[in-house]
Amino acid sequence: MSEVENPVALTAKDFASDQEVRWCPGCGDFSILKQVQMTLPDLGVPKENIVFISGIGCSSRFPYYLNTYGMHGIHGRATAIASGLKAVNPDLDLWVITGDGDALSIGGNHLIHLLRRNFNLNILLFNNEIYGLTKGQYSPTSPQGSISKSTPFGSVDHPFNPLALALGSEATFVARSMDRDPQHLRKTLKEAHEHKGSSFIEIYQNCNVFNDGAFDRLSNKETKAETAIFLEEGEPLIFGREDNLQAIILKDFKPAVVSIDSRENLPENIWIHNPEKKLKAGILTQFFEEINPKMAFPRPFGTIYREQRICYEDSMQAQIDEAIRSKGKGDLDQLLEGQNTWTIK
Amino acid sequence: MGEPEIPTRFAPAMGKAKEKKTEVVICFAGDSGDGIQLTGGQFTETSSFHGNDFATFPNFPAEIRAPRGTLAGVSGFQLKFGSVEVFTPGDRYDVLVAMNAASLKAHLPYLKTGGIIIANTDGFDKKNLKLAEYIDEQNPIEDGSLEDYQVHPIDVTKMTRTALKESGLGIKEIDRCKNMFVLGYLYWMYNRPLARTEEFIQRKFKGHQELVDANMKALKTGFNFADTAEAFTSRFEVEPAPLEKGTYRNIIGNQGLAIGLIAAAEKSGLDLFYGSYPITPASDILHFLSRYKNFGIKTFQAEDEIAAITSAIGASFGGALGVTASSGPGIALKTEALGLAIMLELPLVICNVQRGGPSTGLPTKTEQSDLFQAIYGRNGEAELPVLAAYSPTSAFGAAFEACRIALEHMTPVILLSDGYIANGSEPWRFPRSKDLKEIKTKKVSKPENGSPYFPYERDENLVRPWALPGTKGLEHRIGGLEKTMPEGNVSYDPDNHEEMVRIRAEKIQKISESIEDQIIDNGEETGDCLVIGWGSTYGAIENAVKELIKEGHRVSHIQIRYLNPFPKNLEEIISRFDKILIPELNSGQLCQIIRSRFLVDAKSISKIKGMPFHVEELKAQIKKHIS
Asked: What is the pLDDT of residues A24-37, one digit of tens each?
């Protein structure tokens, strides 16, 4: 009889490595690390099966601080490294840690291809709209006109909309969360983990040294209610202060904001969130005033889109299984010999 | 159906004696859509079954379908077969098959004086002559300019069309059978049976009986035409070569390399992961491996060269045999990731099927100009082992050995091949699985009792253990930052960095303990002159040196298989010769390395034309230095 180990419940502490965490004091990364460490014990995955892969940038130091398997790779390539790792060992629980420069600039190509292939893993993109490790240049998500070390007169680049990019890359799970809402972040991490396929989470993260307050309007108590909307599956899209509630309606695929008196008395055409509708998800990604300044919609947080699609590693393995079933397991001697031989006596 | 027309200008045969030849070089040349490579391949296969030794050299344009009839569009397949040992596809041809004017013009300079030209006259009409840039569209077949050669003008197109007019096929499909007519003609010339090619036709066109019939008929018509036309006073006989006893098969370089990778995966008990992005002339390795899924091989056509290598690094981290291949420009893109693999100390094999460079260079031509790139081409002090295949058959062993070193020494290894090896073929006395050595990996499967696991704890060869994700108790982090030993923690300590740089380099140098000593490939242990080669120049050097020895010169030849680290005895061998000559298809890269490493006055023999050395030119160059 095989020995059954009694699993000892792990805690966040079990996932902390012995390395000193070296981000700048006050960095949003601390919160994200903490939420990840708190979430991991609840996932029911043996610690030895968890692997964190990162690229380069402040966020990419992440694997060093977790007592799991990890690799700190090279700039932009965490997604490609993770693809190879997942392909050869589909049992591993993979987390890709990346940033706005790492994933969207130098590593843009690998990100979009990973998403379309749909490897079963989680991508946490820490978006702080700035290059932190290189000390303050604008990034592909910095709003146009950003003053930075490399753009003293303001950037002329039009920024990326990361969620629209992910959706356009055929991602099967697209979500947004932020460092300053620990509870929401933990919930989003769990949902991402539950999804089988490439789960893409954009996490707004404050860089208090080079881009302090970039997401302040979305996170501080005074403005948050009016600037952000928290999506719940099956729930109506409602936001605003309790004394000035707003709802989003959708008529002929055109969204609009209307005032409502109470949460009970909802208007006709009220938008009920269904993350399995791609067209609606597409509209939600456009609630992005940096790109669409005329659309005065709140920024959505939560799971925006989700679909079931076969994962790359499963299709890959299925082909191998089928080849073995139909041809038999490869025989090296037959391969060496080939189709045609002749003998010299 | 009428009998094919017989050109009247041939003199009647005086009988058909068999003239014995020890070796013959044939070049099949035509438009890149003429089926030249297939024709050459079939002649090779039939000759190999006859027991001849052989070497082949396909030479084709970079464009898939270059403009028809132009010089740029000429595709060639050169084959040397013999009743003696064959080292190269030959310097000059005995027979040139020219399917059109452009192919004659492009290849005539390489035909021996007195050589045979089999010309498809239909390919010499005004249009073709113009495209081939013959002045005033003057036809070389008719203007007497070929009087130094034996010209056999045959209207292959017309005869194939006549023979197949009742086949039910359209003109386009019928014309595609022209190559079979020519093949049949050559089979008669060299007294070869049609059986192998007939079997091939049956296989290739399975399910399309009309195509089987048409190709068979074209083949036989060509054979019968040669017999009836009495174009030759005698047929040529090339007897079997005295090859070592054993069972042989034909092997193409890229195929040998791929089989070597599969064999290494089997012998190390690992799954093979092959990350690759299509590039000439390395793509065939991907094509080949992707067909063998029943060996558990995972081939991954990545989005770019960088993803190809980094996915392979991820696979190696996960416990597979990670391999990637490319050619020069693609290797350049992989460079940063190579540095990461060196820093991580993970097993990885990187194959570079070299081509003419720099940049896009000459995609379909051969060159050895990436040696510096392989040995030095990374940022930082980043040593790794470099091996070179030297022939199509050696590609198998070189790939196997590259994997062994990568796995036993936990390091990325670069394996150099080139376009000449990749597409060339020769007979291979293949090994049996049981004759191949087992490869012992550095995998650690169980946590040591109580003691913590350190990822950079080194053994006597300075090699670290390989702990795979999924193994309980061995959780650890690795990365591209400098690290401490044995913990692997990030460190910016100056002394630690210097120590780690030295240890990583020493680890690579220690590999020389486990590799074979350099052998003298040909000649005496000591002498006036040592010719040192590496890679695909092997055959040409071997041939040249053999002939020079016969002529009484005290010349020896070594072909270096391990370019980093060098075999332990290399310096000592070099010291026993007065002169050192190093022929290379580059401007003298190995020569510079040998000079700087051993402080010897080595001289370079350099060729950078995208073409292999000819034996004669090499002999002349060597002679210049030793006389």
From this structure: 999 999 999 999 99
Q: Output the pLDDT for position B627.
A: 78
- CATH for A12-229, options being 3.40.50.970, 1.10.8.640, 2.40.30.30, 3.40.50.360: 3.40.50.970
CATH number at residue B410: 3.40.50.970
**What is the extent of the structural domain holding B374?**
250-435
Helix (H, G, I), strand (E, B) or coil at B413: strand
- The tokens describing A93, both together, are 């629980």
Beta strands in B201-271 (DSSP E): 234-238, 246-252
Q: How far apart are CA B434 and CA A306, in angstroms?
A: 51
Cα–Cα distance measured from residue B8 to residue A230, given in angstroms and rounded to the nearest whole number: 92
Q: How far apart are CA A260 and CA A268, in angstroms?
A: 11
Q: Where are the alpha helices (DSSP H) in B438-493?
A: none
Is B474 inside any structural domain?
Answer: no
ipTM: 0.96
- Judged on CB neighbours under 10 Å (0-12, 13-18, 19+), B288 is buried
The number of beta carbons lying within 10 Å of the beta carbon of residue B88 is 28
Beta-carbon count within 10 A of A325 CB: 10
What is the H or E stretch that residue A51 is in? strand A50-54
Query: What's the rounded Cα separation, in Å, for the pair B249 and A145?
Result: 67
Q: Residues of A with CB below 8 A from B263's CB? A: 332, 335-336
Spatial distance between the Cα atoms of B260 and B42, rounded to a whole number of angstroms: 24
How many whole angstroms from its chain centre is CA B552?
A: 32
| Residue A201: strand pairing partners | A124, A175
Question: Is the link from the previous residue into B281 a cis peptide, with omega within 30 of 0?
Answer: yes
Please say if the pLDDT value at position B12 is more than 60. Answer: no
Task: Give which of B188, B280, B168, B270 is closest to B231, Cα–Cα.
Answer: B188
**What is the rounded distance in angstroms from the CA atom of residue A157 to the CA atom of residue A286?**
18
Reduced to 3 states (helix: H, G, I; strand: E, B; else coil), residue A104 is helix
Tally of domains in chain B: 3
Cis peptide before B358 (omega within 30 of 0): yes
Q: What DSSP assignment string belongs to A289-320? A: TTT-TT---PEEEEEEEE-----HHHHHHHHH
Structure tokens at B612: 């292999």
A102 CA to chain B: closest CA distance, Å? Answer: 14
Q: What is the rounded CA–CA span in Å between residue A216 and residue A218?
A: 5
Contact B475 A340 (CB under 8 A): no
In a domain, B73, yes or no: yes
**Residue B154: HSE in the Cβ half-sphere, 13 Å Cα cutoff:** 30
d(CA A230, CA A210): 27
Q: Which of these, A291, A148, A144, A287, lies nearest to A207 by C-alpha position?
A: A148
- Using DSSP's 3-state secondary structure scheme, residue B427 falls into strand
A311 touches chain B (CB under 8 A): no
Closest Cβ opposite residue A74 in set B45, B315, B336: B336
Contact B80, B62 (CB under 8 A): no
- Residues B374 and B227 placed together within one structural domain of the fold: no
Under DSSP, the state recorded for A102 is: I
In this complex, do A330 and B296 lie within 8 Å of one another by their Cβ atoms?
Answer: yes
In terms of domains, do B150 and B113 share one?
Answer: yes
Structure tokens at A290: 């940096």
Work out the mean pLDDT of chain A and round it to a whole number: 95
Question: Does the CB of A194 have a partner CB in chain B at under 8 Å?
Answer: no
Domain definitions of chain A by residue range: 12-229
pLDDT digit string, tens, across residues A171-198: 999 999 999 999 999 999 999 999 999 9
Do B422 and B550 lie in a common domain? no
Residues paired with B490 in a beta bridge: B483
B181: its two tokens? 């007519």
Find the range with the poorest average confidence among B57-66, B74-83, B189-198, B236-245. B57-66
Return the amino acid letter for B307. A
> Rounded to a whole number, what is the distance in Å from the CA of B578 to chain A's nearest CA?
41
